[in-house]
């Protein structure tokens, strides 16, 4: 069996939940000495570097005379003047970056298609939802596996626009795939409801993981002792605005802070909202450069709050549980599927309910301890080894069916 994994997600973001899946699968393929190939060299991906195999040169660095360079110059200049980049442009930074790399990406696309047409590999696993390989995979004998991470673009189209490439391509790519992996039963159910023509028999569920328990404690002294923790990006469906409203109500009762780990600097609108709520000195955005630093934020927080209106899985739930951080999260189907009784739930559309649940946990030592112990138990049900092994079983099943 020979497997080829493409490059899309590695250009999409520096590091995240999706790329973590493929890094773990690749690690397991190496351990089991299964032949595989990635369309770009990801050996330095953790440092934000992608290289071309043939020349060993970095290929995800935009040319100096590019649109992305102009964007960064404008961004730096505005920052120097004490101004923020307009949100319209901030939301398009990733698109501008990829546009500036379009020639490099197009060359890699062509190489992947050429490889597929050679029928050298039995399994092809694209990492995202561009459709550049459609014609080649139809002509190839190679079996295709597609992972659906969530259906947020279908369920919240107002946030992404109806011309979003994922909305445009998801249905046709699912129909083209020989097998579809969903990362939760909730995602599988959403996918089959939205696209009833997809046969349920070619869709399976493989859970993700999120264990930070082996990460060493990092000293990161803060000017305050007690804080609540929010992790990741703050897209609209992440429901960060509800958390801010709840926190503003809580601030009249408690001397506590809110740390937002990752997700980039606060936007102009976020800063304006934070200031209007009187929270400027109590809400802080912190970046983190490693899993160890993220683990330290979890370990020292009073609780981790996950207010999303929708998710495909929810890796931060497990990350928090793995290091003994109590979890307070939205009462949505996927969180209940993943966390069971190891989390405390609130109505994500009710800031008062969230505020009351935060207060209950802050004041309830026994309740917090029960959640911590339940979290330690629950997180053991998920592992990256199991996730990667189940991917390989899917690959092997398709290879065997092809041989027959």
Assembly context of the chains:
single chain
What structural class do you assign from the helix and strand content? alpha/beta
User: Helical proportion?
Assistant: 40-55%
Give the low-confidence spans.
Answer: none
Number of strands: 12
Tell me, what's the shape?
globular
Radius of gyration: 22 Å
Strand composition percent: 5-15%
Number of domains: 2
- Compute the separation of the termini in Å: 14 Å
CATH architecture of the largest domain: 3-Layer(aba) Sandwich
* Count of helical regions: 19
- CATH class of the largest domain, named Alpha Beta
Task: Please summarize the sheet with the most strands.
Answer: 6 strands, parallel
In which order are the strands of the major sheet placed?
A: 2-1-3-4-5-6
Instruction: Tell me the CATH superfamily of the largest domain.
Output: Glycogen Phosphorylase B
**Topology-level CATH name of the largest domain:** Rossmann fold
Mean pLDDT: 93
